[in-house]
Amino acid sequence: MTKNVQSIERAAAVLRSLARAPDGQGLGELAKSLGLPKGTTHGIVRTLQAVGFADQDRRTGRYQLGASLLDLGNSYLDTNELRACAINWSDPLASRTGAAVRIGRLIHGRVMIVHHVFRPDDTIQVLEVGALMPSHATALGKVLLAFDPTAVGSLEGDTLPTHTHHTVVRRTDLVAELGRIRERGWASDREEYSIGEAGIAAPIRDNGGLVVAAVGIAGTPRTLFHSEVPRASFVAQVLATAEAISREVGGRRS
């Protein structure tokens, strides 16, 4: 009977622990969660850093998942597979909310729409599959930025592109908002990318807890918001849909 390689099992445990901590983990915290000595944990993390599977924040010293690992996860989850996982849940979401539904992934700092369900009304609509949207000015994009420890660094400059007078353009303001998004688990935008359009989005995770995509609804501010706050019922439905799609993705990747 073939024995498992202990070092690989421990490295996998480190990666799973980091995947569950979008704000990162300190060495002591990580070692305690795994029940390993600090020295052993440090050796594993340093090796993961060397191959790009882990990163360390120089300011805080906390460890996070690395860009190379995130790229592997994105390539593993084929776009067609993601669409297949989402289709049974995105159509009902559009019907219940009366809003358009989008599934997006982060591609080189922007959101690529991989699945789009039209609003259930008679207005003229254009299929957006393949469209690229700014990550800092959309609910989908902000969710993906919030749960990708390397993505904010890919946005160039301290001032981000302006799309409307509501767009968050200061990097420091965006970073603060992303922290709030990680805490509550969802994001919104209100006319930040396009006047007359608002959005609510939540993360889609694989069976290891890694965020691989986001699902969101798009409609008018009047429809999705109440007194400048996203309607709680719509937030709950988006979160429930994200969880359902995550279970589908996890089942296919287990």
- How is the largest sheet built, in terms of strand order? 5-4-3-8-7-6
* Shape by Cα distribution: globular
The CATH topology of the largest domain is Beta-Lactamase
Q: How far apart are the first and last residues' alpha carbons, in Å? A: 23 Å
Total of domains? 2
CA-based gyration radius: 19 Å
What's the CATH H-level homologous superfamily of the largest domain? GAF domain
Low-confidence stretches: none
Report the total helices: 9
Mean pLDDT, rounded to whole units?
84
What does this structure look like?
There is one protein chain. The protein is 44% helix and 20% strand. It is built from nine helices and ten strands. It is of the alpha+beta class. The protein has two domains: 6-65, Orthogonal Bundle (Arc Repressor Mutant, subunit A), CATH 1.10.10; 72-253, Beta-Lactamase, CATH 3.30.450.40. Strand 9 and strand 10 (229-230) form a beta hairpin.
